[in-house]
Amino acid sequence: MDALIQEIDHNFESFFEQLEKNVNDVIKGQNGEKDSFKQSYRRLVSYQAWMSEVLEKLACNEAISFFKEAQNDVLASHSLARQGAWRVALMSLRSSIENTVFGLYYLDHPVELTLWAQGKHKLGFAETISYLSKHPSFIDFPNSKITGIGDLKTEYATLSKAVHGSSKLFRMTKGGVVEGLNIQSPSDFGGWKKREMAVITSINLTFITFFRHELAGAANLNLRKSISLAIPDSKFDKIKEDYKIRLKKQT
């Protein structure tokens, strides 16, 4: 037994040192993508803006905990991508979608939220999306492509492949061999960047639809500025047309 423990501990020392080296090497190697990570960080600021300007004013502490967790998820995804931990970075994006839609549901259901706090209520993603799709905030725009809900559903399905490792695109093993927990990979970075942009855009569109009355006229200027950094300019005209909300294009 002592010999086994010594062998395990020896392997641990190698793993411990190699892990630190791998992470540092990947972070250093990805410094060339600093501008892309800067753009990502700008997008993430929108979640904090929603928190401080709207969510914390309308939701109770229990409901806010879902949104805080979702915000932590997108920040974790950003950090994990810096380290080249691609699969778990995608898993964190998926979790941010779950926590966001669950937060919106419980915002409307204080009784169910109380039961959830007691461990007596559990939501499923599909039923929550179905509820939101029929919500008064969304049914007025059945044909709109900017409500965000459909996009969140699509992104969730895509990211679920990463969670379950069911797609070759998201596997961290090649031919059954673990190539590393932290990998510098331009293709994986490109895939994460695409998914991250889509998730942040979809969350913001969903919030705009759900809370559009909080953005009417000249209200919440700083929030609208933050949203403008998170959503592609190509959607601004449609948002103005459907919701009468003006976003500012970057100059």
What would you note in describing this structure?
With 251 residues, the chain is mainly alpha-helical. The chain has one domain (2-243). The protein contains eleven helices and two strands. Strands 1-2 form a two-stranded antiparallel ribbon. β1 and β2 form a beta hairpin. α2 packs antiparallel against α10, α3 packs antiparallel against α4 (86-108) and α4 (86-108) packs parallel to α9 (186-210).
The helix tally amounts to 11
Distance between the termini: 67 Å
Parts with pLDDT < 50 across at least 5 consecutive residues: 172-178
Count of distinct strands:
2
Shape summary: globular
β-sheet strand percentage: under 5%
**What's the SSE pattern?**
HHHHHHHHEEHHH
State mean pLDDT (0 to 100 scale): 89
- Any idea how many domains? 1
- Roughly how much helix do the residues carry, as a percent range? over 70%
Radius of gyration of CA atoms, rounded to a whole number: 21 Å
Order of strands across the main sheet: 1-2
Q: Sheet bearing the most strands, described?
A: 2 strands, antiparallel
Helix/strand-derived category reads: mainly alpha
